[in-house]
Amino acid sequence: MNPKVSVIIPAYNTEAYLAKAIESVLEQTLTDIEVIIVDDASSDKTVEVAKSFTDPRLKVIVNQQNLGAAAARNRALRAAQGEWIAVLDSDDWYAPERLSKLVSLANEKNADMIADDLYLINDGETSPWSTLIQESEESIDKIFQIDIVYFVETDVYGQPGLHLGISKPLFKREFLVKHGIEYDDAIRMGQDFWIDMKCLIKGARFFLEPKPYYFYRSRPGSLVHKSQLSRLNQYLNASNSFMQQEVVKKNPALMRALSYNNSVYKKHIAYLQVVEPLKEGKWLKALTEMGKNPYFFYDFISRLNNIIERRIQYYIMGNKSVFDISYNIHRERKTSN
User: What is the pTM of this model?
Assistant: First the structure.
């Protein structure tokens, strides 16, 4: 008999965090589960940590070469047998009742996807400093259904909003299989937003439970520290691909929301095409990009206060989370008021 939930955990060089993630799943009040860990060719002791657990519900798959989080998740998806698919990043963890609560609510609402609020916690700290919903300033006090336009409009890169793209929904596996939905291997960072979009475009019933049961850890070395330019180009390509679909073209509100997101991506890309060569000492390339982007200096000045604030926080105050998603959600909300 298939398990109720398959929990998939992609892991890469997270030997210091993985045990806590695994323990939080094995200690769930819902015991009818399987846990599938895919190690993405780690160079540390991540595999050893994973294989140190003897619980028969746990399976470890090892990639011989690094394929990226999306490909690792897809490998786990193909191996999963559960009625529901739950995703857990290897440096995060669940509250003990998370799966029981969300599966029960999903069945009650006849959901295809269900997410909860996220506790936001900085690496090395014992208590969350906030939650995703609190930082969004959205007034959400009961479970409600998320439509695709709202999902896009409230998750604009670098701007205040709900940012459900970083939430970790449970997915009904039957829905994913029926529509052939997997993660996009070409997107190495921020894959969650785009698989949610694939589901919503296919008509998934997506509900949000405003209580937090997921602990989202901000830490140095996580994927949010990687090249923003590469990430944004991937997002822009994915967005353009969605906008070519007939079902999207027939939804004017969705087209407007995606077009606005694209304009934001392009603005940040134009800025980063100057900044990243400057950081690497490639002055000629930076000057060339400045010539292509006459608004660079205006954009730079508008960002200057935030740039200075982050440097002070990082180098003087020792706040190593200033470049993480959770910090920037908070910072963008403050500076928009």
Answer: 0.87
